[in-house]
Design a protein that fits this description.
The chain has one domain: Ribokinase (UDP-N-acetylmuramoyl-L-alanine:D-glutamate ligase), CATH 3.40.1190.20. The chain has eleven helices and ten strands. The chain is globular and about 45 Å long. The N and C termini lie far apart (about 35 Å).
Length: about 290
């Protein structure tokens, strides 16, 4: 039976920060996304990851977007992909550029994928380096399932992407929806965070729901913010399920804060601005 996410879990699943920690010790995240048409998605994910409390975010975007993305925020470390789409060459070049010691990566936001093998190579290599991986948007493809099964991977589909990946459209009835998510999470040994007015999160063994019911959160980019949060928390808490629960809860509460402030007239960056206020009550420093 699915459980509702409780604040006590958020506190429990967010590791304390050491007062003597150095740059990089609180998380290094890689974001891979963007295309000629969708420049904002990887930026939203990257800024969201930073606001979650990680130290460093490396944002890999097609080279045509590198300068605009750098101009949007000086907080991002931008890695230009050599091609406009994710090709095998671009994937291999990126793997040679990313720094050692990455903790997590999120892939797919606005990303144009030219070659199925390119995504396989990128994901497989990161997993072999013990990097926790989250997949969203175009990276949610059926062909990637054999590469990620029984690995520490989070999938963050909306209903349409879920159907594309697993061949089944989730029901709007929450009880049936949770059964479906749990079934495929168990079958493929992955963690699934199915986005919706009520998020459903399952690793096939435990299942949770996160009711939001926010009319304003249909605006584009809120899912990219969620992807950044998943990667940001994964960088510190290595558990895919626990990190997904924290990310879903924080994303939803940030949406509530934004809607309370702006009504139905929010944009995704409003959620990013609210993340620190949402997470601050759960902050702790180890002794």
């Amino acid at each position: 039976m699915a459980k509702k996410i409780q604040p006590v879990l958020i506190k429990k699943f967010l590791p304390p920060r050491r007062p003597d920690s150095r740059k990089g010790q609180n998380g290094k995240v890689l974001v891979v996304g963007g295309s000629y048409m969708y420049h904002g998605a990887p930026v939203l994910a990257s800024l969201s990851a930073l606001k979650s409390g990680v130290d460093l975010v490396y944002t890999a975007v097609p080279k045509i977007l590198a300068s605009p993305v750098r101009a949007i925020s000086p907080n991002l470390i931008v890695i230009p992909l050599v091609d406009a789409k994710l090709t095998r060459g671009a994937a291999n070049k990126l793997l040679g550029q990313v720094p050692a010691g990455l903790d997590s990566a999120t892939i797919g936001m606005g990303l144009a994928i030219s070659d199925e093998e390119a995504l396989r190579v990128l994901v497989k290599s990161l997993l072999e380096w013990d990097v926790r991986v989250s997949l969203d948007a175009s990276a949610l493809a059926k062909y990637i399932l054999p590469t990620i099964e029984q690995k520490n991977v989070v999938l963050t589909p909306h209903a349409g992407e879920f159907k594309r990946m697993f061949g089944v459209m989730p029901s709007d009835i929450i009880k049936e929806r949770t059964v479906t998510v749990e079934k495929f999470a168990r079958q493929h040994s992955v963690t699934i965070l199915l986005k919706g007015s009520t998020d459903v999160i399952s690793d096939g063994k435990q299942t949770f729901v996160n009711p939001k019911n926010l009319a304003s959160m249909t605006v584009g980019g809120t899912g990219d913010v969620l992807s950044g949060l998943v990667a940001g928390v994964l960088a510190k808490n290595r558990s895919p399920l626990q990190s997904s629960l924290v990310a879903a809860y924080v994303n939803g509460l940030a949406g509530k804060m934004a809607q309370k402030k702006n009504g139905l007239h929010i944009v995704a960056t409003d959620l990013i601005d609210a993340i620190p206020a949402v997470m601050k009550p759960f902050d702790s420093v180890s002794k």
